[in-house]
Write a structure and sequence with these properties.
By secondary structure, this protein is mainly beta. 7% of the residues lie in helices and 49% in strands. It has a single domain (24-263), classed as Beta Barrel (Acetoacetate decarboxylase-like). The model has no long low-confidence stretch (mean pLDDT 97).
């Protein structure tokens, strides 16, 4: 019998793109909180979500320098299990529950792509970079201190999709306050068979479940964000109308479960 949590299935299961949960993540995050056109934000929402009337148009864009492991010390294979990611989250409502919806996300690693699709993140391949911070003092170290500056960028298929810069001003005492809402996703896998292409194999509205969430060395300050127009992409439709802040922190969490909010597969 072939083995493996994801494709490709193989005799020993070692060829699978990613191992089974539990999945553990550690990341350095650079991001910008901003407000976009409420109509543009609402246009991205799937069935089951509605705009948040109190904060409609509020978004965050986040760039992450990540390290992953499952249960077999995968982090010792950094070529396969280190990666970078960029995504946007926007405020929405699921019934009476404030949530964040993820319409666009990019990664630079196929194992991360497989994990993302399994959870409902609409991941695409991209090229993501961010300024790193180092402990040894240097003009290049970008220390976590007032006035330090960080940059981040996202490109895909030869086009620049996002550029951000932040300037740190003060530490945040409660780093978890920067997270706030649960993230809602859409697990969607279409059928290719003729006559069934409008009847997806999976169409589920899901909520991300994270365990052991920790935030360290959180800082907040000013932010700058540019979302240039790019052919074949729609991230630029969320162009900022107002920048709220920039932030930088280290994040850790684990994933072992997923909550299905609505199953639309049979519709």
């Amino acid at each position: 019998m072939l083995k493996g949590f994801t494709l490709p299935k193989s005799p020993f299961g070692q060829a699978a793109l990613t191992p089974p949960p539990p999945w553990h993540y550690s990341s350095d995050v650079v991001g910008v909180e901003f407000w976009t056109d409420p109509g543009a934000a609402a246009a991205t929402l799937p069935s089951g979500l509605t705009p948040d009337p109190k904060s409609n148009g509020r978004c965050v864009v986040m760039f992450l320098d990540r390290q992953f492991t499952a249960q077999d010390d995968e982090y010792l294979n950094p070529a396969r299990y280190q990666y970078r990611e960029a995504f946007v989250l926007l405020d929405a409502m699921y019934g009476d529950t404030p949530v964040m919806w993820c319409p666009y996300v990019f990664v630079d690693n196929d194992a991360a792509l497989a994990r993302g699709w399994t959870q409902g993140f609409p991941q695409k391949l991209g090229s993501i970079f961010q300024t790193r911070s180092y402990a040894a003092k240097s003009p290049a170290a970008a220390p976590l201190a007032p006035g330090s500056r960080f940059g981040a960028s996202l490109s895909a298929h030869g086009q620049r999709l996002a550029e951000a810069r932040i300037t740190l001003r003060r530490p945040v005492q409660d780093g978890l306050s920067l997270l706030g809402r649960p993230t809602v996703l859409l697990r969607y896998f279409p059928r290719l068979a003729a006559g069934h292409q409008d009847k997806p194999a999976i169409d589920e509205l899901t909520m991300s479940v994270t365990d052991n969430v920790a935030v360290a060395e959180a800082w907040i300050g000013e932010g700058e964000l540019n979302l240039p127009e790019a052919r074949g992409e729609e991230l630029h439709s969320l162009v900022p109308q107002r920048i709220e802040s920039g932030f930088r922190y280290s994040l850790a969490y684990s994933v072992t479960d997923l909550k299905i909010l609505e199953d639309h597969t049979s519709r």
